[in-house]
Amino acid sequence: MSSNEPARVYVLCRGRLAVQWYQQDSAVIYDEADASLRRIGTIAAELLGLLSQEPGSVAQLAAALLDEVPESEDLQLVERTLGDFVSLGWARCEAA
Question: What average pLDDT score do residues 39-56 get?
């Protein structure tokens, strides 16, 4: 994101998802909208957990996930994962 683009904030679509831990390296998500189950990795599950607490930008969520200043690759991974959440209808992206 360039400095002249408006900040984007990701918001969880509440009341739609139930997280069921499956193994140490993944989680199973039940989507009430279409009664589907999806297996996701722990990073995606942690991002969902962060979004369930409060909305955030890519940079904010990446920093909270890593507990340090994120590198460019970290930001790209978080942005791709959040884009997947938006595509699935689990989250939405809003202008800050």
Answer: 92
